[in-house]
Fold:
Amino acid sequence: MKPKLVNQVSGQRIFVVVLDLGDEGFAALTAFATDKNIADKNIGSASLTAIGAAPP
Structure:
């Protein structure tokens, strides 16, 4: 997993998280949220956009 903070304005942060082949999506994003200290907080809103391809 390769996370990168691409923008931070007025307390809002935008990350790009690129998963490696074989990473399980939910587990990887949960680990990312825990690492960035955003898990288990009172988050007012969030969004997720996913693009890419799955191996055959």
